[in-house]
């Protein structure tokens, strides 16, 4: 099996992929097939003649999908959709809702299923959130003639597996079941026959797309869609008459199907079969999960406190051998979800320091990125399971959402409302996972987070330093320029980070989101102009003061400061390919830690990767041992006679992984730092400090000293 993984997934040698609940990695055979497709001339399936390869392959794929789910196209119609969410929305838009419909959904569901609640409510249906399938239809429900129950095969938040038997239990009570199986394994539909099934091609084969399985004897529950491209026998524009094609998949697959993706999905299933049948894949994931769970929960700090807290706590998964014994050696029963306490290959947890303090997701994400670990952070689009596991009640969640509405992001991105987490780290295993993957992530967690990580104890600050280089970075995210002397004040270096680039939604564009920003050099000319230079090929100058403020911009942009005219936006489109606004920010806060510095000796520890532009520091210092600038300050500090009021270590981010010369991401320097200097996931490198200039402007020059006051 590992030979197949090494051959088909060579990218997994460097990258530790642990997000199978999000997507299956693409395989080499899919790339090779795409190359073959590029040498052929496939037409739009609606344009083809008597023989159409895309149409033929789509029919093959319908049968392949059913085979992997232990069913057939005689039992289920197979409809290809844009993604799994689209399949659920298709159900919501076409189901024959009535005021006599009762829609129940398990609290532990994806947001896409929760979306059906809104649809049902708008149609006047009764809706309810439940924590398990009721034994019998309640008295209240008996007033309804349609009972729909939606639940997942496995929680995408915690990995909890729900019983297949719920399907027939609900059906015996006269209800219909929506079975959400959009995960890393296929459901076994040989015994239980849900009415509607949701699958994700992305999570099964690494190719974008979803599948909507409809039991043939339940097709009558769905209304016909509106006429659209590819769904009609005929239509008359003048009279409005039309007739839809007879097969339900012909009517629901509106527009041109993504036939190249579907062709690649066939190849993904072929490689999946090499890795084992669905039962074997599920059992292997369970074995890896059991092994990983034991290692993960065994991570303890030297004082005995746990590094990891699972959310929710999970019972230990039985080993395959134990299951075989309890099931008389029948491996087919191992992968069933009839045990209501069983968990699969998804782990949701947070990390804590040896003092019991929640570690920041941002710092953990940084560490994972440096070591090329692909995992997921946040609420995982499952607020029911997430907020329940993390002990947030609905009113608290609504208040947090209201307070952070202007951020324009899911609140789980906040990581925590101190000291309580809002989300988790999610690690998930899949068809191409190995035991080595579990060992690799345990090693990283042990080395980077146990007992605070590898960073040595903080010593005392060693001074004096002298300034050997000075840099100003006028535009946030862009390259700056070097100076020999410069005006400084309580606000920092003059013009430093005064401007930023924001998109029409008012969001500042980080360099990691657009590495081409590193091709823009910002400088100041004659204390009058801001100059943006693109690779010495194209340049634009704008006035620093007395410029015309562009009022014809979205309100969200105006909130960020004073926007420049459209000529700058056009320049940015022509150079970096993004329509952005150059905004001069409002007055900066006085006394903030606006200065950044690092010693030349510390940079030299990176050997050939010495480059102050990479770390965007204002001052390069010289004259003390490497990393000594991060030491504890014991007396009053000054720089060239100016009082330093604040001094602390600087935490670097992924921006420093971008090579300023070509914009390419280079992780080796950060790996070196993280392996030596990681502290609970964060890496300190250099310092930040603030000054008190007594309200005056001073000239700072190369050669100036930082020392203790006498």
Automatic annotation (TrEMBL):
Keywords: Molybdenum cofactor biosynthesis
Gene Ontology biological process terms in this record: Mo-molybdopterin cofactor biosynthetic process
Region named Disordered: 313-339
UniProt cross-references to PROSITE patterns, sorted A to Z: MOSC (PS51340)
Gene Ontology MF, one: pyridoxal phosphate binding
Domain MOSC: 565-709
SUPFAM superfamilies: MOSC N-terminal domain-like, PK beta-barrel domain-like, PLP-dependent transferases
Keyword DNA damage tagged: no
UniProt cross-references to InterPro entries, sorted A to Z: Aminotrans_V_dom, MoCF_Sase_C, MOCOS_middle, PyrdxlP-dep_Trfase, PyrdxlP-dep_Trfase_major, PyrdxlP-dep_Trfase_small, Pyrv_Knase-like_insert_dom_sf
Domain of life: Eukaryota
Name assigned to this protein: MOSC N-terminal beta barrel domain containing protein
Organism, as annotated: Tritrichomonas foetus
């Amino acid at each position: 099996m590992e030979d197949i993984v090494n051959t088909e997934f060579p990218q997994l040698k460097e990258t530790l992929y642990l997000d199978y609940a999000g997507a299956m990695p693409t395989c080499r055979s899919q790339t090779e097939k795409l190359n073959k497709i590029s040498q052929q001339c496939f037409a739009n399936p609606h344009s083809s003649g008597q023989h159409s390869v895309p149409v033929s392959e789509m029919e093959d794929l319908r049968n392949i999908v059913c085979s992997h789910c232990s069913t057939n196209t005689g039992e289920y119609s197979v409809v290809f959709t844009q993604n799994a969410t689209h399949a659920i929305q298709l159900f919501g838009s076409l189901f024959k809702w009535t005021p006599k419909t009762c829609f129940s959904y398990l609290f532990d569901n994806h947001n896409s299923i929760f979306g059906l609640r809104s649809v049902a409510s708008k149609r006047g249906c009764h809706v309810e959130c439940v924590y398990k399938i009721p034994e019998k239809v309640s008295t209240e429900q008996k007033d309804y003639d349609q009972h729909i129950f939606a639940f997942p095969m496995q929680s995408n938040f915690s990995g909890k597996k729900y019983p297949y038997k719920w399907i027939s239990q609900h059906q015996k009570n006269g209800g219909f079941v929506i079975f959400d199986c959009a995960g890393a394994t296929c459901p076994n539909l040989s015994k239980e026959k849900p009415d509607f099934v949701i699958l994700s091609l992305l999570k099964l084969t690494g190719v974008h797309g979803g599948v909507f399985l409809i039991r043939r004897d339940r097709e009558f529950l769905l209304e016909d869609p509106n006429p659209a491209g590819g769904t009609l026998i005929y239509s008359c524009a003048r009279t409005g008459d039309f007739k839809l094609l007879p097969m339900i998949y012909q009517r629901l697959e509106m527009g041109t199907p993504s036939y190249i993706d579907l062709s690649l999905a066939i190849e993904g299933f072929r490689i999946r079969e090499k890795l084992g049948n669905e039962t074997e894949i599920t059992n292997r994931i369970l074995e890896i999960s059991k092994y990983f769970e034991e290692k993960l929960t065994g991570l303890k700090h030297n004082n005995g406190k746990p590094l990891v807290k699972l959310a929710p706590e999970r019972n230990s998964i039985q080993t395959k051998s134990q299951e075989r014994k309890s099931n008389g050696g029948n491996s087919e029963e191992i992968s069933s979800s009839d045990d209501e306490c069983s968990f699969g290959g998804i782990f949701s947890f947070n990390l804590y320091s040896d003092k019991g303090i929640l570690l920041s997701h941002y710092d953990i994400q940084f560490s994972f990125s440096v070591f090329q670990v692909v995992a997921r952070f946040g609420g995982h689009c499952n607020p029911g399971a997430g907020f329940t596991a993390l002990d947030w009640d609905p009113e608290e969640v609504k208040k947090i959402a209201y307070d952070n509405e202007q951020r324009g992001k899911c609140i789980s991105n906040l990581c925590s409302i101190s000291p309580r987490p809002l989300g988790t780290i999610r690690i998930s295993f899949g068809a191409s996972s190995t035991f080595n993957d579990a060992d690799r992530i345990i090693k990283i967690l042990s080395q980077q987070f146990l007992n605070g990580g590898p960073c040595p104890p903080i010593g005392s600050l060693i001074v004096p330093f002298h300034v050997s280089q000075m840099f100003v970075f006028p535009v946030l995210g862009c390259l700056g320029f070097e100076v020999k002397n410069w005006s400084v004040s309580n606000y920092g270096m003059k013009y430093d980070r005064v401007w930023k680039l924001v998109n029409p939604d008012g969001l500042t564009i980080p360099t990691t989101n657009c590495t081409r920003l590193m091709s823009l050099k910002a400088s100041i000319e004659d204390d009058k102009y801001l100059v943006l230079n693109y690779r010495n090929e194209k340049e634009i100058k704008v006035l620093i003061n007395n410029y015309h403020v562009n009022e014809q911009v979205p309100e969200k942009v105006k909130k960020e400061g004073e926007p420049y005219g459209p000529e700058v936006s056009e320049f940015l489109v022509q150079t970096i390919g993004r329509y952005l606004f150059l905004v001069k920010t409002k007055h900066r806060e006085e006394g903030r830690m606006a200065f950044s510095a690092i010693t030349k000796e510390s940079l030299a520890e990176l050997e050939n990767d010495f480059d102050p532009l990479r770390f965007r520091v204002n001052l390069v210092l010289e004259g003390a041992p490497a990393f000594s600038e991060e030491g504890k300050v014991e007396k009053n500090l000054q720089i060239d006679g100016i009082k330093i009021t604040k001094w602390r270590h600087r935490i670097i981010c992924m921006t420093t992984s971008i090579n300023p010369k070509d914009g390419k991401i280079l992780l080796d320097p950060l790996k070196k730092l993280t392996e030596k200097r990681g502290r609970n996931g964060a890496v300190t490198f250099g310092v930040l400090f603030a000054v008190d200039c007594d309200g005056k402007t001073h000239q700072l020059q190369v050669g100036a000293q930082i020392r203790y006051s006498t």
